Amino acid sequence: MSEEKNKNINRRDVLKGLVTLPVAGAFAYSWYQKQKLTQMLKNALNDEINLDEEQLAFSAESTNNKQLRLGIIGTGGRGRHLLMAAGFVHPETIDDWKYWAKENKTDKRYEEYMQQEDLNLVVTGVCDIYENNAEKGLKASANSFRNGIEGKMGNTPTRYNNYQDLLAADNIDAVIIATPDHWHGTITIASAKAGKHVYCEKPMTWTVQETYDVVNAVKDNNIVFQLGHQNRQTESHFKARQAYEKGLLGKVNLIEVTTNRNSPGGAWQYHIPENANSNNIDWNQFIGPAPWHDFSLERFFRWRCWWDYSTGLSGDLFTHEFDAMNQILDLGIAESAMASGGIYYYKDGRTVPDVLQMTFEYPSRDLSLLYSASLASNKKRGKTIMGHDAFMEVGGDLKLYADPGSTKYKEKIEEGIIDPKLPLYSFTPGMKQVDAITSPTEQYFAGRGLLYTYRGGKRVDTSHLHIKEWVNCIRTGKQPSCNVDQGFEEAMTAHMGTLSYHENRKVFWDADKQQIV
Amino acid sequence: MKYKNYQLFWLVVLRVTIGWHFLYEGMVKLINPNWSSVGFLLDSEGFLSGVFKSMAANAGLLQWIDWINIWGLIAIGIGLILGIFCRVAISGGVLLLAMYYLSHPPFVGLSYAMPTEGSYLIVNKVLIEMITMIVLLVFPTSKFIGVDRLIFSRK
Asked: How many CB pairs (< 8 A) connect A and B?
């Protein structure tokens, strides 16, 4: 080839240079066609479901106007988690988190805790009947600056050996109750009578009678009561309620809620510290309203295994599921309950069953609520709300599927706009986040939206939001989302299940007389 | 390098189809506001999984990785289809595919949460696509068929 020819770009070069351009055109055209179809399907779906995909924002409500003085009764594992949610963590835990954040970059516990909003609280009283827990509670409560052990601490609160003395203190406005179940009612009532606002762990009560007494005490003394069902703050539950209210499910006829765990910790066989003994545990006070039993470390640390102190699966774990459903569907107290089960795996001397089935009927709502639990199988089952037109799986996220036999979606299914095999609507909060969950029990709670949720796309501890709501309500005089009325429904429904299990018969709720028959 | 016409034809077809694949993968990520590489990185297994997981944990780096994936895939796709700066585009593609492969190597004993559409042992489609692109580097075509013909003057 000649020099001349090579230097100039001729027609032939242009042709060969751009010969693949039509492929780019074909791509653009196919892309456009595909997008048009997707958009058409999406619009058609949106017309049908019309649910916003907005994430919940942080509540702008001011919480900082006046410092609130807290007392805490019960600083075991759960109590200390609530202290953390309120802004008080043991300095050694802070050091641990810092260490792990360095070791493992996906471990964001320290970072997230430091971002947790300051609720302007101070802990002025701590009560626990086990020395070691009281000591830990005091150290955590004094850590108002969120420092490690080398850092500056705030004032150490007063330690009380019994709850009565704590409630008599003038410098306490509100109390957090995180005792074993058999003390919830008694201490809530005493707190209300002392004029202290109450955040009490679930279940609200241990006996049926206490349930009425708690309601009366809370209402008579005009205190702000929040029951510790932190699921009330879970973002996906708000979306589930929207979906239900919009009638996307059609007529809901069956709700299935479950518990599946398969580890000693999950089955309440907690670790017994070696140095624990009758000298550092106030056994008489532990027994309290329960029937007398001689000192037992097992009973003290694994109290959930005995009816003497526990409410079993019904009060302990079903209540989480029930309250979530009550939050989404306003179920109220079941009209009847029927339970069965047994101690089939953990034959460790416990009296509460480790496998339990309970059926709650709501004939006036034309639906059944089914609870099924095993503490010795990890088969993953979630919360499913079943309607004629669609069913919805609710956990930390949310998935709604159209039913192939649906009347409402019949046409759209036939037109191919709705595919029953794919979610009609799905909501996954915090999709761009890293999740570092460690223990099986943590995974259990996280999967249920009980450990954390999202606000403004950021991960937040649900218990923190629940305490924040309670504190806001104390400051503004409003009612929190899980107040004593919701608590009454929760406790009565759970008691009905337990009673049915004990008496081996179907029990009923007499709505006129407001009692279980 | 001199090709017979049918050799050049099939090499260009190969280049354009791989380009199409890259372009579409990039566009899909671009229009999905919720897309992030975080899930893929966290699912990583094998001897480099620590590196990939720590990439996911660094929010600043993660944003950058997401950006480079989206726009890298798109640019490589266009580069291959039109034959623009093809050597650079193919090299970039090989690098990206190597990362995808190394973060999820189908080695004996490793399993993943992310679904795959076939059965693989050591060799998977990512590896094959990567090697195919290396072949395209060895047998370049863009200076015959492609915009590079207009950009780079011949010797």
From this structure: 69
